[in-house]
Design a protein that fits this description.
heterodimer, A: about 525 residues, Rossmann fold, B: about 60% helix
Chain lengths: ~525, ~350
């Protein structure tokens, strides 16, 4: 065992550069147990809620569906299914608002609830170790499980990578302020999360799991400490409070001292990470046969009367969720999906809660003051001091404003995790992350345009080549045909037949004779006229 | 109802540029008080003139550039420039000195290069160097410390001197700067340099009345006061320790080595530390974020360079003090320092 591995085993916690300590404000929402949200009348389920292609729609308008019934099919390109969150009738399939910062629409399936909340028969599994890994993966896939931590990467896809693994890391850090969904889940369902972790270990063919929790969640830590004695494969790691210690790359650095290579994956350094919510969902899918129908959502901020955590069905409109929590909007209210650091604002509350929605934050303008005017950068370097990726944010900002895309690549723009620490500390209130997102989109666009142009060029060149080739072939054909004809003639003449050339000569001679005769006749006529 | 759209992060630390700048000029207060104590009220007149000029110059420059004027006044960067320049020049210098220097600093050094954040050179120091080169007499005529002065200068005399060149009793600045022996007194650094250049030993040079136990009378305490203010800035995380630390190491280590080899012909490290603009330079001038290096490693190198240049110029150069020149020279090297001290980004092979 190497020294580094020994240190990991001993529970050493490394550190990562930068980071910030924003007010945590978790006490607003983490005081009460997770409460079930009363059934809504209508649900809108986007067909794509994960990173990958949407599955093919299986239902039609007018169909009766039950909770847990698949609405779309497991498809190619990481296609994950979505399920009916309750029983009712499909009333529409078409474009609808989705939870995306762009405010764009996508295909959504609208279900009018019948209030009975009947569900399809779930198929529990007594002993998961008896069925094959492939079957387990299939079960997770058909349950529609995508990473619940935020990225929405299909979980089965991540587990299917057959590469040597040192550790499975279960991420219960939840470093973003205000959010306490994972905190409450860990306090109340530690055993299920542990079950899920063991299933994940089994599927991944990995020996050991590290469960990471931030030090500001003593109840969750105690819940796991009480149970982990019986699970030697699992060990608990308490990480110090600092944002963004729950970022995948930062947590890997904290627990193992390793760094995921730029543009690489955790598996490149022998690690795979899953969120505690995902572990819970995996246990539910495997042991109970329950697909992903609901998740814990933190509703918080000073403008809700009943902040807390709720079991919310996927597809529940945000408007309904907030209404149930006593939402009192103020003028210019911001409704943030996600936390104050990385969440995005919603313009329209008909947007549904989806698999990756962990928080709805409705702050008052006192607690989270709206952004001030952007002032000039004074190069103070506060951003560089807090950047966990060790980038130079102010340099990136100049380059982004100057649209210097080569410079941006040189300064490793794509290693930015958009955690927002730089913009948080910027005394000039420059919306740095906004500039980086825009620059990233532009760089991607340029790459796409370039690829397109490359394809177009290849196509054009191929066409030119084809036309040239066809021309050459045509000429060659003509030449061959002419040769063949000549040869045939020559052969015919040689065999004593009529030479077609003779006929031509004869015709020419005839024509000449006729012309000569005509000329003579005309001359005669002229002479006669003169005489007269 | 539609809701407000905003870009993440939605949380923001409430420390604005204005607050950063306010901390900087508030931390200068101990030093300014010490200056007042030793050199009289002139510094307040200079401060008032500098602030007025900076305010007007900022307004004119922003208007000429077609930018919102109030925006520039809000960030308080011009206040810092004005204050730094006002406390760097002799307290009884004529009024047009500070007006010209401040106007040049704001309009040419800052706005011609694109305004706040864009200037290559520290505006206050560029203004100072312009004045020093153009008006060497006025810029080196520091009043003598109050405790050595033959004539005490009242507030009204101070104003009169600055605006007309004479006190109400008709004395000019040269007369006020004479000691009991009738010889004009130089600043401690100036006097030391001259005496050492004239083959006096250090102890002989230090026997002049302008020197006390710590160093030059007044100057030592003023430096200690600026040091205190600077430590407050570090404590408040307005500046990092890298630049002042580098500055002092870059100045004092070579100075100590040089002094160990020439104990009679060199200024002691202690005198270096507590003379001239050492502490003001280390904590308030070299730390101007706009014109300094940006990474911590870069800041450290930048500080070392400024400190070393101060040592070199003080020891062999043509000017008694050197903070302004050293800072401007180091400003020029910042792009190179930044280029070679870029930290290794996460996932690019660096160590944890």
């Amino acid at each position: 065992m190497s020294a580094a591995t020994k240190a990991i085993e001993a529970g050493h916690i490394w550190t990562f550069p930068g980071g910030i300590h924003p007010p945590e404000r978790k006490e607003i929402s983490n005081q009460t147990p997770i409460a079930p949200l009363p059934l809504a009348q209508q649900y809108t389920i986007p067909v794509k809620q994960h990173s990958g292609a949407p599955g093919e729609v299986l239902v039609q308008v007018g169909d009766k569906v039950k909770a847990g019934q698949a609405l779309t099919q497991v498809g190619a390109n990481n296609g994950l299914p979505v399920h009916a969150p309750t029983s009712g009738t499909v009333t529409a399939i078409g474009p609808g608002m989705i939870a995306h910062p762009s405010g764009l629409t996508d295909t959504v399936i609208t279900i009018e609830a019948d209030g009975n909340d009947e569900h399809v028969a779930f198929e529990p599994l007594a002993n998961y170790t008896e069925i094959s890994r492939a079957e387990l993966l299939e079960r997770i896939k058909t349950a529609g499980i995508a990473g619940l931590g935020g990225a929405g990467f299909p979980t089965a896809q991540k587990l299917a990578l057959q590469r040597p693994l040192d550790y499975l890391i279960i991420n219960g850090v939840e470093c973003e302020p205000y959010i306490s969904a994972d905190d409450r889940l860990m306090r109340e369902h530690a055993q299920t999360i542990i079950d899920g972790t063991e299933i994940l270990l089994h599927i991944a063919g990995c020996e050991k799991a590290l469960i990471a929790i931030e030090a500001n969640k003593p109840e969750a830590i105690a819940a796991f400490e009480a149970l982990l004695d019986k699970h030697p494969q699992l060990s608990l790691r308490v990480v110090p409070v600092k944002y963004p210690s729950g970022g995948e790359k930062q947590l890997i650095q904290l627990l193992t001292g390793r760094q995921v290579p730029s543009r690489g994956l955790p598996i490149d350094v022998g690690l795979v990470m899953q969120n505690v919510g995902t572990a819970y969902a995996v246990a539910q899918a495997t042991l109970q046969g329950k697909p992903l129908l609901e998740r814990v959502v933190t509703v918080t901020g000073e403008n809700v009367a009943k902040p807390g955590n709720y079991w919310v069905r996927i597809g529940t409109p945000v408007a309904y969720l907030l209404e149930q929590c006593g939402f009192k909007p103020e003028p210019e209210q911001r409704v943030i999906m996600g936390g104050p650091m990385m969440g995005f604002t919603l313009a329209d509350l008909s947007v549904p809660v989806v698999k990756i929605t962990n928080c709805i934050l409705v702050p008052s303008s006192q607690e989270l003051a709206p952004a001030q005017d952007e002032m000039a950068c004074i190069r103070c370097g506060a951003c560089a001091d807090v950047c966990p990726a060790q980038l130079l944010p102010q340099q990136l900002q100049w380059l982004a404003k100057a649209k210097d895309y080569d410079g941006l690549e040189q300064q490793n723009l794509f290693d930015c995790i958009e955690c927002g620490a730089c913009a948080y500390v910027c005394p000039s209130e420059i919306p740095l992350v906004h500039y980086y997102r825009k620059a990233k989109a532009e760089v991607r666009n340029i790459a796409r345009e370039k690829a397109k142009a490359e394809v177009a060029r290849e196509r054009f060149e191929a066409r030119q080549e084809r036309l040239e080739r066809e021309k050459q072939e045509r000429l060659e054909r003509h030449r061959k045909a002419a040769e063949a004809r000549k040869k045939a003639q020559a052969e015919a003449v040689a065999q004593g037949g009529d030479n077609p050339q003779d006929a031509v000569q004869a015709a020419i001679a005839r024509a000449k004779a006729r012309k000569a005769a005509q000329a003579a006749a005309a001359e005669q006529q002229n002479k006669d006229g003169d005489d007269a | 109802m539609t809701f407000k759209i905003a870009a993440s992060p939605h949380a923001h630390q409430r420390r604005t540029t204005q607050q950063v700048m306010r901390w900087v000029y508030l931390a200068l207060i101990p030093g300014v008080l010490a200056q007042t104590y030793f050199f009289g009220f002139g510094v307040y007149v200079q401060l008032a003139l500098a602030l007025l000029t900076a305010w007007a110059a900022e307004g004119i420059a922003m208007r000429l550039r077609g930018r919102p004027v109030a925006h520039a006044w809000q960030d308080h960067t011009a206040i810092v420039t004005a204050v730094l320049l006002a406390i760097s020049i002799p307290a009884l210098a004529p009024w047009w000195i500070i007006v010209m220097g401040t106007a040049f600093a704001i309009i040419v050094v800052k706005h011609v290069y694109g305004g706040v954040g864009q200037n290559l050179f520290n505006p206050a120091m560029a203004g100072y160097v312009l004045l020093l080169i153009s008006f060497p007499v006025q810029m080196t005529s520091w009043p003598i410390p109050n405790e050595l002065a033959q004539l005490q200068v009242s507030i009204s005399d101070t104003v009169s001197l600055i605006f007309s060149g004479f006190t109400q009793a008709g004395y000019n600045l040269e007369q006020l700067r004479m000691g009991a022996d009738g010889i004009t007194m130089a600043t401690p650094l100036d006097s030391l340099r001259n005496d050492l250049n004239h083959q006096m030993t250090l102890s002989e040079a230090l026997s002049k009345p302008i020197f006390g136990e710590l160093g030059g009378i007044g100057w030592a305490w003023i430096n200690i006061a600026f040091l205190l203010g600077g430590l407050v800035l570090i404590k408040q995380k307005i500046i990092s320790w890298h630049i002042p630390g580098g500055f002092l190491v870059g100045l004092l280590v070579p100075a100590a080595i040089y002094w160990l080899f020439n104990p009679d012909q060199a200024i002691t490290p202690m005198l270096h530390a507590l003379s001239g603009a050492t502490m003001l330079g280390a904590f308030f001038i070299a730390t101007d974020p706009v014109t300094a290096a940006t990474s911590n490693k870069g800041r450290w190198l930048f500080g070392l360079l400024v400190g070393f240049l101060v040592f070199v110029i003080r020891t062999w150069g043509g000017y008694p003090d050197a903070v302004a020149f050293a800072v401007l020279l180091a400003n020029m090297t910042v792009p190179v320092i930044d280029k070679y001290t870029q930290p290794v980004a996460y996932g690019h092979g660096g160590r944890s």
